[in-house]
Amino acid sequence: MSTPVIGVLALQGDVREHLVALAEADALARPVRRAEELAEVDALVIPGGESTTMSKLALLFGVMDPLRERVAAGMPVYGTCAGMIMLADKILDGREDQESVGGIDMTVRRNAFGRQNESFESGIAFKGLDDAPVHGVFIRAPWVEAVGAGVEVLAELPGADGPESRIVAVRQGNLLATSFHPELTGDHRVHAYFVKMVEEHLAAE
Amino acid sequence: MSTTPTTADQPQIGTARVKRGMAEQLKGGVIMDVVNAEQAKIAEDAGAVAVMALERVPADIRKDGGVARMSDPNMIEEIIEAVSIPVMAKSRIGHFVEAQVLQSLGVDYIDESEVLTPADEVNHSDKWAFTTPFVCGATNLGEALRRIAEGAAMIRSKGEAGTGNVVEAVRHLRQIKNEIGHLRALDHNELYAAAKELRAPYELVKEVAELGKLPVVLFSAGGVATPADAALMRQLGAEGVFVGSGIFKSGDPAKRAAAIVKATTFFDDPKIIADASRNLGEAMVGINCDTLPETERYANRGW
């Protein structure tokens, strides 16, 4: 099987780190800013960044609709932080006019963990990556407030004060999303997990 | 410099990775100076990745003269309330109490800025002592590395704020990039002497020589007034831009702000930059930096 070509949505955000992580996970990675470039990739990563800026630029430069069509057609997409917000069917605490690509039947609360002073890093158990905890870097991070029946929860973070835990990683079909940023650590297992999803999808087509 | 991953499973706040990682999320974006909630909303609407809350934009600080200080906490809080994007604010160089106040207000980034009047002519603030990350200005690589050694989690080339003239921004960014290129070419025996010449810690010099870039995000600031200016700084290697007076001292701030955002994302596409540059109304009136007296050059502040 040929190496999958995975784009990183390069409108704004930590694009470079994702390109590096994908290459380390044996994918061919390239930046995507235009609809023509989107048409040439097998899968896409939506990076961390400012979700309001990303959403605005995606609409302005005609990437939003082609992206929605590709998602509907089954293209694998992985979103981190702002990327998770972009994949949510419903956003809380967003801008009123903020649009998402959607695709995952979940409600995501933007900046739910607080402002930068509350940003943190923590070890976290990730379903399917059972050899060791994943190191989660949470930066003004969102959490998943509710998920539909078709969504598999991959990681939850125990509440700081009390038993309530927060969903921070999910998968629905070919769509994967994390509140945190594996691309900022040297550990590329989550990217490898996504590359495997892409390979399985391509093999099944 | 602890960039090594922590193995602790307990949540940790204020780590170098969390501070530097925040700046990584701003890359490819525009950070805009705003003086009130209304301007902050215009900036957010235009697609800014963050706003810088301050009492007067640099062009007005220049015009008014006097001592420029940290902004009124009320004003900063109003801006934090008004927008959902990150909010930065400026402290004077070496004024760590202003920085403590800004941290207590919950700003997302502190700019220890030469645009304000320095409070200490020898020492910058110890930025490791804070949970809130810092961005600092630099005119050359040595200065950038000294700020990083003090704990800065993001660097911006200084330029000459409030002039609407991009010439100093270009000079400083080129200087930093050239010096990084020079380090890359040195053999490892030569890095010790290079560190001495740069007046920067050897470990950081070695890290830059290996990475071929700063260990933190590098933006450009000081003099960007047009979409083409922003794209120029990006093509020269800035990972994003700060725009100060350039937006709200122009004829049509909302339009110019949106245009600069577009040109910053598509910095290598002249067609898009051309479209973004059409009918923007008047740009801010510029100042020629070669007629600026030495004492009025903000870039000379900090060392």
Automatic annotation (TrEMBL), chain A:
Is-annotated flag, keyword Hydrolase?
A: yes
Task: Summarize where L-glutamine binds, as residue positions.
Answer: 49-51, 110, 139-140
Any one GO CC term of the record: cytosol
SUPFAM superfamilies named among the record's database cross-references: Class I glutamine amidotransferase-like
Q: In which pathway does it act?
A: Cofactor biosynthesis; pyridoxal 5'-phosphate biosynthesis
So what does this thing catalyse?
A: aldehydo-D-ribose 5-phosphate + D-glyceraldehyde 3-phosphate + L-glutamine = pyridoxal 5'-phosphate + L-glutamate + phosphate + 3 H2O + H(+); L-glutamine + H2O = L-glutamate + NH4(+)
- Gene3D superfamilies documented for this protein: 3.40.50.880
Question: Record's InterPro entries?
Answer: Class_I_gatase-like (IPR029062), PdxT/SNO (IPR002161), PdxT/SNO_CS (IPR021196)
E.C. number(s) listed in UniProt = 4.3.3.6, 3.5.1.2
Q: Highest taxon of the source?
A: Bacteria
GO molecular function per UniProt: glutaminase activity; pyridoxal 5'-phosphate synthase (glutamine hydrolysing) activity; transferase activity
Active site (UniProt): 81 (nucleophile), 181 (charge relay system), 183 (charge relay system)
Q: Which Pfam families match?
A: SNO
Q: Which UniProt keywords apply?
A: Glutamine amidotransferase, Hydrolase, Lyase, Pyridoxal phosphate
Give any single GO term for biological process.
Answer: pyridoxal phosphate biosynthetic process
Function of the protein:
Catalyzes the hydrolysis of glutamine to glutamate and ammonia as part of the biosynthesis of pyridoxal 5'-phosphate. The resulting ammonia molecule is channeled to the active site of PdxS.
Query: Would you identify the family this protein belongs to, as annotated?
Result: Belongs to the glutaminase PdxT/SNO family.
Which proteins does it associate with, and in what oligomeric form?
A: In the presence of PdxS, forms a dodecamer of heterodimers. Only shows activity in the heterodimer.
Q: Which PANTHER family match?
A: PYRIDOXAL 5'-PHOSPHATE SYNTHASE SUBUNIT SNO, PYRIDOXAL 5'-PHOSPHATE SYNTHASE SUBUNIT SNO1-RELATED
Q: What is the name attached to this protein's record?
A: Pyridoxal 5'-phosphate synthase subunit PdxT
Q: Which organism is it from?
A: Kitasatospora aureofaciens (Streptomyces aureofaciens)
Organism lineage: Bacteria, Bacillati, Actinomycetota, Actinomycetes, Kitasatosporales
UniProtKB/TrEMBL annotation, chain B:
GO biological process entries: amino acid metabolic process; pyridoxal phosphate biosynthetic process; pyridoxine biosynthetic process
- Pfam families listed in its UniProt record: SOR_SNZ (PF01680)
Q: Which pathway is this protein assigned to?
A: Cofactor biosynthesis; pyridoxal 5'-phosphate biosynthesis
Active site as annotated: 90
Extract the InterPro entries matched here: Aldolase_TIM, PdxS/SNZ, PdxS/SNZ_N, RibuloseP-bd_barrel
Instruction: Kindly list the GO molecular function terms attached to this UniProt entry.
Output: pyridoxal 5'-phosphate synthase (glutamine hydrolysing) activity
Give the enzyme's EC designation. Answer: 4.3.3.6
**Presence of keyword Chloroplast:** no
The UniProt record lists the PdxS/SNZ N-terminal domain at 16-221
Report the domain of life of the source organism. Bacteria
Tell me the residue numbers annotated for binding D-glyceraldehyde 3-phosphate: 174
Q: Enumerate the PROSITE patterns for this protein.
A: PDXS_SNZ_1, PDXS_SNZ_2
Which keywords fit this entry according to its UniProt record? Lyase, Pyridoxal phosphate, Schiff base
Q: Which residues hold D-ribose 5-phosphate?
A: 33, 162, 223, 244-245
| Reaction catalysed by this enzyme | aldehydo-D-ribose 5-phosphate + D-glyceraldehyde 3-phosphate + L-glutamine = pyridoxal 5'-phosphate + L-glutamate + phosphate + 3 H2O + H(+)
**Described purpose of this protein according to its UniProt entry:** Catalyzes the formation of pyridoxal 5'-phosphate from ribose 5-phosphate (RBP), glyceraldehyde 3-phosphate (G3P) and ammonia. The ammonia is provided by the PdxT subunit. Can also use ribulose 5-phosphate and dihydroxyacetone phosphate as substrates, resulting from enzyme-catalyzed isomerization of RBP and G3P, respectively.
Q: Give the record's subunit note.
A: Homohexamer and homododecamer. In the presence of PdxT, forms a dodecamer of heterodimers.
The entry sums up its family as follows:
Belongs to the PdxS/SNZ family.
Designated name of the protein: Pyridoxal 5'-phosphate synthase subunit PdxS
The scientific name of the source species is Kitasatospora aureofaciens (Streptomyces aureofaciens)
Q: What is the lineage of its organism?
A: Bacteria, Bacillati, Actinomycetota, Actinomycetes, Kitasatosporales
